[in-house]
Design brief:
mainly alpha, three-stranded antiparallel sheet, 4 helices
Length: 157
């Protein structure tokens, strides 16, 4: 066998996949990325980075949405270029879409805790006091700059 490996001469693994699949993957991921880039709805149950931390803070939802849309557009371009690059970008999408909101929430509120009210999207933030470490429920993300700790009276952030 000339070329060894697969037993089909000089063909590679990528040659075994129909070229139309590249275009389909590029259209789906790139199209969804462009849709997300120009259309930015609020937190919902159907599309977006649907984590409790992103539901609790609208600014966090918007930043996560922008990151995911950009990575999806890059995935669309990579689908035309190489399957390896496409799957590497897919791994980045999966990891960063969880790690980025967690990092931003932890940096803003000092904890990964949240609390849930009634309903599908009724997640609310909780903040940890820097002085005494008390964990306090907040009505919404806008309440953080004005909130005082219930235990020691210090500003939360």
């Amino acid at each position: 066998m000339a070329g060894g490996g697969w037993g089909e001469g000089d063909r590679t693994k990528e040659d075994l996949i129909h070229p139309g699949v590249h275009y389909l993957a590029a259209a789906l991921s790139g199209g969804l990325g462009l849709l997300m880039w120009f259309w930015q709805p609020g937190p919902n149950c159907w599309i977006g980075v649907r984590l409790p931390w992103t539901f609790a803070d609208r600014a966090l939802w918007d930043r996560s949405w922008r990151l995911a849309s950009r990575i999806l557009v890059i995935m669309g371009v990579n689908a035309l270029w190489s399957w390896k690059a496409f799957f590497i970008t897919l791994a980045h999408l999966l990891v960063l879409s969880v790690a980025w909101p967690l990092y931003l929430y932890r940096r803003k509120y000092g904890t990964l805790s949240y609390w849930k009210g009634q309903g599908c999207l009724a997640y609310r933030p909780a903040a940890r006091c820097r002085g005494c470490g008390y964990l306090q429920k907040l009505a919404d993300a806008a309440a953080l700059p004005l909130s005082h700790c219930e235990a020691c009276g210090q500003l939360l952030r």
